[in-house]
Design brief:
Length: about 270
């Protein structure tokens, strides 16, 4: 089982659209795929036409009175299931803070799914939090959408520096340019610079197109309702980039090895 997480400190950069389309493409490839909508706003749940509610809420999941397997819902697409969002996820930091080994709780919750899932996608809320640290410890790959601006580069540098300080398990980072508008000189310059000078930045760029915005109207991945569009081709390219990544090395000391990290992302 490989765990992918769409993550960025900033909101509105294309995390959910990437998670929804990549999860659908994984399922199309025959992988048993699960998407966990960790954002209390529930955009991914909305797009998959699933009510954003988990019985017992985030408390039941974090405390273990309800397993992740019990919370899984089916979608309209073969091989693709969803753990929906819940408004109580807004308090997940507090719930995790009361758990044993609070930065590793999500990883422990996900572990039993290895027998039934090939790929898990975590659609993460924009934050610097205990939830963020849990995601980084649980994920094999952090998928980081970047709008082509200087501040996005600063965010990427902060993230890579933070992950580099982890002991043992370190997720790979694959960033990509999102919502890129070729009409804007800055976007063209930043796209060229980042894709050629940063090893963690994918050569694939997701353009700013109205067909992607229509996902919330169609309530489906763009790879479903516009499979021949430029946007769908870009997401397929990004999925190919992800599949080409080598698996992360196991933690020091084997599966039970220590995982560590600092407590905050921004110093």
């Amino acid at each position: 089982m490989r765990v992918y997480a769409t993550y960025n400190i900033k909101g509105g950069v294309g995390k959910t659209t990437a998670a929804v389309n990549l999860a659908h493409l994984a399922a199309q490839d025959g992988l048993r795929t699960l998407l966990w909508d960790l954002d209390p706003q529930g955009a991914a749940s909305f797009m998959f036409r699933v009510k954003p509610r988990v019985k017992g809420g985030g408390r039941a999941l974090i405390r273990g009175s309800r397993t992740l397997d019990d919370a899984i819902k089916g979608t309209d697409f073969d091989g693709l299931d969803l753990i929906p969002a819940d408004f109580t996820y807004r308090n997940m930091d507090l719930l995790l803070g009361g758990a044993r080994k609070p930065t590793h709780r999500l990883a422990r919750l996900l572990a039993p799914l290895a027998a039934s899932c090939d790929a898990v996608f975590l659609d993460c809320p924009p934050s610097i939090s205990l939830v963020s640290e849990n995601v980084m410890h649980a994920a094999d790959v952090l998928i980081v959408p970047l709008i082509p601006t200087t501040l996005s580069v600063r965010t990427l540098d902060q993230l890579t520096g933070f992950v580099a300080r982890f002991d043992g398990h370190r997720p790979r980072i694959l960033a990509f340019l999102s919502m890129a508008d070729r009409r804007k000189k800055l976007h063209r310059e930043m796209t060229q610079e980042l894709s050629t000078e940063r090893a963690v930045v994918s050569p694939t760029t997701i353009p700013a197109l109205s067909v992607i915005e229509r996902m919330s109207v169609e309530r489906a991945p763009v790879t479903v309702f516009a499979p021949r569009s430029q946007a769908a081709r870009a997401y397929r390219s990004l999925w190919s980039d992800l599949r080409a990544l080598e698996p992360v090395a196991p933690p020091a000391g084997g599966p039970g090895g220590k995982r560590g990290g600092q407590s905050t992302l921004v110093q």
